[in-house]
Amino acid sequence: MDSHSEEFKNPTDHDDQYLGPQETRSSAIHRIRTAGNVSISPELFEKLYLNPKIPVAGNLRQVLVHNCGFLSGAQHTPAPTEIDPYSGAYFFFGGILLMVGGFLEFIIGNTFSSVVFMSFASFYLTLGSTLQPFYGAYAAYSPSATDPTAGLDTQGFNATFGFFLVFFEILCFFYLICSLRTNLVLVYIMFTVVVGLGLTAASYFHRATQDASLAHSYQVAGGAILFACSLGGWYLLLALLLPTVDFPFELPVGDLSCRIPSMSQRKLNKDQV
Length: 273
What we know:
The chain has 273 residues and is mostly helical. Among the domains are: 75 residues; 108 residues. It has ten helices and no strands. The chain is elongated, with a radius of gyration of 27 Å.
């Protein structure tokens, strides 16, 4: 009874055995308290989140895992005269995965990444829906009541879908401008997306004018550019995955977040003058 009472009167004597040889109780408490807050450089932050580091309330960035699925299906450009066998991939890999990733980016306050992911998710969902016979997107243009695929060759369908690609290309051009404050790999991806979409849109417009030879040439060129775009996407994906497992080396992405000064930094420098 007396031994138990003495143990409870001096509980710290028993805990001191867990301290290091040169460590005091106060230094151990400080070490444990600061272990929960990890500071990362702006370059690493931009690399992981594809977004320049900006102040955001809360600590969700420390507990949510960054979704890094991006442009995984950009390497395939559907021909306007066939039913694309990859339409299911557009729904799930291209649509749902990017939509979930964009929503998580929205929660942790990464506006640019969120908008890019969700807009590309909407693009892939639209593309998959257009190619699905269930929705009748091309059947509405078909001159034949028994052959809905005949609508794929009509002037109305190809011209309309070409305009859809043109306006999405304009949106991607805005992303290209904004990506100049992220990294070189993302700039490369956005640039090739803009060029590839322009060539693909030209293919649809020439298909609408029944110029099959020139349409095919533009389609092949657009597919080649978008394939080159996908290589950048795979490289960026690997560069994002390596830090998540604390790999012994990392792939460079060409950080640009510190190359172009931000508006807040310019205002701060102006106030200091």
